[in-house]
Amino acid sequence: MKGGGYGLVGDIVLGIIGALVGGFLASTLLGLDVTGFNIVSVLIAFVGACLVIAFARAVTGKRAAV
Fold it and tell me: Using CA atoms, how far apart are residues 10 and 56, in angstroms rounded to an integer?
C-alpha cells in the first residue's frame, strides 16, 4: 500500500493480524479451507493484510505522503 506505513515492526504485526483475519473470514464466510502453504492461502492472507492496514490507516488518520 502507498504511504509511509507504521515502521518495520508495526507493518509486520499488522500483516500477521491481517493474515489471521483474512483466514478467519475466508473460512467463516466463504467456507474455504485455509491450511498449509498454497496459493489460495497466500492470496487470502494478502487480502486480509491489505484490509487490516487500510482499516488501521482510516482509524488513525495516517495518510499517504504526496
Answer: 11
